């Protein structure tokens, strides 16, 4: 590692941590003050609000990290240009790409650490923060992240399961109906039960307090009542993904589990798949965002540093706006989830290529 590489890389960290600190303080304070409004509800306390802010702090950090990287990179290049170091380095035989390399390596390091935090630290803290909010700050008697209402699942090629409430935390489905259809999709038989519970001994779900109904013809049925009987559903609750946790709060691993379950049961996986692809594209998003802004510090060398930063921030927020818009379209199934997640990366990647080519960097 050359002395010039270490010198430029060292210059990156000061502005980076300064930008991260400022943005983190603004975002966290804004969110905390917003939650302080709940102190008047008679349940929330100052300690509960501060605990919530502490739980969500890592999530905010990962959110502002790309902007901190961008401002750190812009500051390094701007300072070198304004002080004449950039001109001296180029005159000494260094190419602009060689001078960019230390900054890019620092950005990649930050991105990898951010990905690790997003995958292993942020999701459990976000879920805990969600539970904390609805139990300590704004209590909701019906709040249960493990439960979902009005669930429809495809169990087999010709079987559909309906449940008024599914609680995987306790392994219970309430007010269930399991319908079996013939080859023409006419209903052939039906289980209707008060509940269906997971039985560890048999490794299957069991109906309780219900009726097994056979459809003899369009007007006649045969009913058999039971207190407890086996069901054809054998999927372990740990392999199921039916809950109220939002896709954005889940890790890539949890999203993959949810997608596989949705595909197995015939549920729509557009939203989960779009979110997964967006998370996988995150490292490239941060890098490309910084590459979009860095050349402005050189091309606008006679202008003020503030103008450089403003121009770069406009590009960055345009990037985020496009990502948000395309992701929303993908979540609703209007475009392929892979295109929704990677489309902005490919588009702005092409912009970066032509930008560097036009500026001869």
How would you explain this protein's 3D organization?
The chain has 361 residues and is of the alpha+beta class. 58% of the residues lie in helices and 18% in strands. The chain has a 6-stranded antiparallel beta sheet with strand order 1-2-3-4-5-6. Strand 4 (187-199) and strand 5 (204-215) form a beta hairpin. Helix 7 (270-280) runs parallel beside helix 11 (337-358), helix 8 (282-293) packs parallel to helix 11 (337-358) and helix 10 packs antiparallel against helix 11 (337-358). The model has no long low-confidence stretch (mean pLDDT 86).
How many DSSP E strands? 6
User: Strand portion, in percent?
Assistant: 15-25%
Number of helices: 11
What is the mean predicted local confidence, pLDDT?
86
User: Which structural category do the helix and sheet elements fall into?
Assistant: alpha+beta
What general form does the structure show? elongated
Radius of gyration: 27 Å
| Ends distance | 22 Å
- Spatial sequence of strands, sheet with the most strands: 1-2-3-4-5-6
Helical proportion, percent range: 55-70%
Low-confidence stretches: none
| Largest sheet properties | 6 strands, antiparallel
SSE order? HHHHHEEEEEEHHHHHH
